[in-house]
């Protein structure tokens, strides 16, 4: 899977993102031509090489614009929807602007469509966001993963006045996302926060990948202690000629020897509802020869805090531990298969070598069994026997 890793060691903004993607080979002239399909007039797009603390990067400048033009969220939404852009680019752009709009609506206490953008409503921010969406499509990026996002510190001056860093919109957008503070400058802007919030599927260390391209996008200011650059690494995540993908997740676990077994099933359900990838309860003998349980949860980095809160709230545990692990995943696809009971959800799994298997989904089989008053085993047997024989895809 072609994956882009956003290495946000100096934060992220719209122009830094677009600069890094241009540095990986997206033509500036092509971007400008496509962005005009919104349509937008009165702007130009240029890219130049700059050096930040000894590192070459691409600086994107949106010029020839009216800095006093601002737009409501509803206007921007219609502008994107009525454009000639591809559905994928439209969806990405709309997601990013909605992310900003919802944050601003909560802060100012108004309806989403009436949110009035200042800096974000200007042509330069629209170009950064739609340009990013176009660049992702141009490069064929299938997945985005990000490092934790540095916010910076101090104060920043904007259209609303002088605000603390992170700006209220940035803090609102990045709720639930791993962030870092420190410093005396704004490192992540609301536009950058919305881009990474909308695009990234997970936050954590660089996943194992075969790096193909690296792009560096420059910020406008100089920052003490770090180059003001966003680095994006692009590569294939997977092994054995793409037979499986690899990534990193967390194991979160706790030893428990003083909790009623009646609570265990409830805790398991709550953790899965909170985003846990899997939960197991392993019988164990604890200190003082007490029979107990090892509660072990698999979690994405982005869900870590939710999972930890749930464990400490729902169980008798007063502490836990977590550590990163690597996992390998076979390609799978959620599908529905027509059966004598109607359409039933299944998974299509591709084994190394190309062999394809169809695996019934447990919950879907339970619904069929209940609805038709038959055994679960009969549903499983019927579905697996009537599937096409294993085959090797070309």
Tell me what you see in this structure:
The protein has 394 residues and is α+β, with helices and mostly antiparallel strands. It folds into 3 domains: 2-236, no CATH class; 245-329, 2-Layer Sandwich (Alpha-Beta Plaits); 332-385, no CATH class. The chain is 32% helix and 32% strand. It is built from 11 helices and 20 strands. It has helices spanning 14-23, 28-35, 73-81, 87-108, 123-139, 168-173, 190-199, 261-273, 304-314, 362-372, 376-385; strands at residues 2-7, 44-52, 55-63, 71-72, 116-117, 143-146, 149-152, 155-158, 161-164, 179-181, 200-203, 210-218, 229-236, 245-256, 278-285, 291-299, 321-329, 332-339, 342-350, 356-360. The strands form 7 sheets. The chain has a 5-stranded mixed sheet with strand order 11-6-1-13-12. Strands 15-16-14-17 form a 4-stranded antiparallel sheet, with helices on one face. Strands 18-19-20 form a 3-stranded antiparallel sheet, sandwiched between helices. The longest helix is centred in the first third of the chain and has 22 residues, at 87-108. The model has no long low-confidence stretch (mean pLDDT 88).
Briefly characterize the structure:
By secondary structure, the protein is an alpha+beta fold.
Features of the shown structure:
about 400 residues, alpha+beta, 3 domains, four-stranded antiparallel beta sheet, about 30% strand, globular
Query: Between the first and last Cα atoms, what is the distance in angstroms?
Result: 19 Å
Helix content: 25-40%
Radius of gyration: 25 Å
Strand order of the largest sheet: 11-6-1-13-12
Overall form: globular
């Amino acid at each position: 899977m072609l994956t882009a890793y956003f290495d946000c060691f100096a934060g992220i903004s719209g122009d830094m993102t677009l600069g890094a993607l241009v540095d990986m080979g997206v033509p500036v002239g092509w971007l400008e031509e496509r962005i005009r399909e919104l349509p937008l007039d009165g702007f130009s797009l240029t890219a130049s090489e700059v050096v930040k603390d000894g590192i070459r990067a691409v600086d994107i400048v949106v010029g020839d614009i009216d800095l006093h033009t601002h737009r409501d969220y509803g206007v921007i939404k219609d502008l994107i929807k009525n454009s000639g852009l591809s559905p994928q680019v439209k969806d990405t752009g709309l997601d990013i602007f909605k992310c900003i709009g919802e944050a601003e609506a909560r802060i100012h206490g108004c309806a989403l469509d009436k949110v009035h953008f200042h800096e974000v409503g200007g042509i330069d921010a629209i170009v950064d966001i739609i340009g990013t969406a176009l660049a992702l499509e141009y490069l064929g990026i299938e997945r985005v993963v990000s490092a934790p996002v540095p916010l910076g510190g101090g104060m920043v001056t904007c259209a609303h006045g002088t605000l603390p860093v992170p700006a209220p919109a940035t803090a609102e957008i990045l709720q639930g996302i791993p962030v870092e503070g420190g410093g005396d400058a704004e490192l992540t802007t609301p536009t950058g926060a919305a881009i990474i919030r909308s695009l990234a599927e997970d936050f954590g260390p660089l996943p194992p990948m075969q790096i193909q391209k690296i792009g560096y996008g420059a910020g406008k200011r100089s920052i003490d202690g770090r180059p003001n650059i966003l680095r994006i690494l692009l590569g294939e995540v997977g092994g054995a000629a793409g037979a499986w993908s690899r990534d990193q997740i967390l194991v979160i676990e706790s030893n428990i020897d003083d909790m009623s077994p009646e609570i265990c099933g409830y805790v398991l359900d709550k953790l899965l509802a909170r985003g846990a990838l899997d939960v197991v309860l392993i019988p164990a003998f604890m200190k003082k020869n007490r029979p107990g349980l090892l509660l072990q949860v698999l979690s994405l980095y982005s869900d870590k805090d939710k999972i930890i809160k749930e464990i400490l709230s729902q169980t008798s545990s007063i502490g836990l531990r977590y550590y990163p692990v690597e996992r390998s995943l076979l390609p799978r696809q959620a599908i529905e298969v027509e059966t004598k009971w109607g359409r039933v959800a299944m998974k299509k799994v591709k084994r190394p070598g190309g062999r394809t298997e169809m695996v019934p989904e447990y919950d879907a089989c339970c619904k069929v069994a209940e609805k038709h008053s038959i055994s679960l085993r009969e549903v499983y047997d019927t579905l697996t026997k009537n599937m096409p024989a294993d085959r090797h895809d070309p």
